[in-house]
Amino acid sequence: MKPALSLGFFGFFGRSAVLRVFDADLRAVDLHPSLVPEAVKLTAMRLLIDRAHGHDPSAEESRAAAEIIAYCMIGADAFAGANGLPLTEAVEQRIEAALSHGMSLDAKLVLLTLHAKVIQPSVVDHFQLESDQEG
Fold first, then answer.
1. Residue 64 and residue 103: Cα distance in Å, rounded?
2. d(Cα 65, Cα 83) in Å, to the nearest integer?
């Protein structure tokens, strides 16, 4: 059984622990969680849960997903300014590897930001990304 992902209900019941951790991971890489559409966060967490065979993702997996999403959303320069060049280069290498090896989790996260139209144009240009979707 997959863990429930809850956004809360009018401020009641609260967000699920998985989403609270992911929000903290986004903050840690200098992307405020309110700038990330809830649909993107829910989809990212569902991808991680599916990868973990229905279990909550590990802290490392959540952080790694936040790094990819933040890089895609804020671009290389802002990401490097907030997180340093070594992490920026590591994320860029992960993206390059993901794009050359098909549908890995990292590739799905990049594709998620592309299809949600929250990806920086500089990232699209740098990695020569394109979508079959129009409009």
1. 16
2. 15
Token pair recorded at residue 53: 């065979």
Sorted by where each begins, the domain ranges of the chain are: 17-127
Residue with the two structure tokens 């500089």: 122
Strand pairing partners for 9?
A: 12
Compute how many other C-beta atoms are within 10 angstroms of the C-beta atom of residue 120.
18
Phi, psi (deg, nearest 5) at residue 104: -75, 170
Instruction: Extract the residue ranges of the chain whose pLDDT is less than 50.
Output: 10-11
Distance CA 10, CA 57 (A): 26
The reported pLDDT for the residue numbered 4 is 55
Length of the chain: 135
Confidence at residue 78, expressed as pLDDT on a 0 to 100 scale: 98
Chain-centre distance for alpha carbon 26: 8
| 3-class DSSP assignment, residue 15 | coil
CA dihedral over 24, 27, 32, 37, signed as positive or negative: negative
> How many CB atoms lie under 10 A from the CB of residue 21?
19
